[in-house]
Write a structure and sequence with these properties.
single chain, 161 residues, alpha+beta, Aspartate Aminotransferase, domain 1, 2 domains, 10 strands, 31% helix, globular, disordered N terminus
């Protein structure tokens, strides 16, 4: 029988010669690649570095990618010590706890700073669809990066005291 040619990337730590701090500092997660064949045999391949947030952004529609990248850069500029990872299949920024997540949808970008942030910024969120812990940034309007900056800084203050 012919092989399926399917590869599975599984997070592993530590990687030879790399500590978890190195992975955090480079904002890359390390994955071990496994190839599955129809016969059920498993073959281990060499370890590779993959930025999961880069992959997430690259998997989105071309016209949304620059917006996602700009949101990512805004978050990282204001929370430079935050660990970038995927959680709940969304880019997530963690520093002692989850600070904020974002995700692309067909007509909006979801921003998830938590319920307290929605309450704190309620006056600035008028005109946006919100729910407990979530803000919808419509793709039909310019993204308010100043609002994102302020939310990230506020969330960081909440976490770091």
């Amino acid at each position: 029988m012919t092989p399926y040619g399917v590869k599975l990337y599984v997070p592993v730590t530590p990687v030879a010669g790399k500590s978890q701090d190195d992975a955090r500092d480079s904002q890359l997660l390390y994955y071990k690649c496994w190839s599955f064949e129809y016969s059920g045999a498993v073959q281990e391949n060499e370890v590779s570095k993959v930025s999961v947030v880069d992959d997430y952004i690259a998997d989105q529609e071309l016209e949304v990618q620059p917006l996602l990248q700009a949101i990512r850069e805004t978050i990282l500029a204001n929370a430079p010590d935050a660990l970038e990872k995927l959680s709940w299949r969304m880019p997530t920024y963690w520093q002692s706890e989850n600070l904020i997540h974002f995700a692309a949808f067909s007509k909006h970008i979801g921003l998830y700073p938590g319920a307290k942030a929605i309450i704190h910024f309620a006056d600035r969120l008028e005109g946006y669809k919100t729910s407990k812990g979530a803000i919808q940034l419509p793709l039909s309007k310019p993204i308010d990066y100043k609002l994102i900056t302020d939310i990230v800084r506020w969330r960081l203050e909440q976490v770091t005291g």
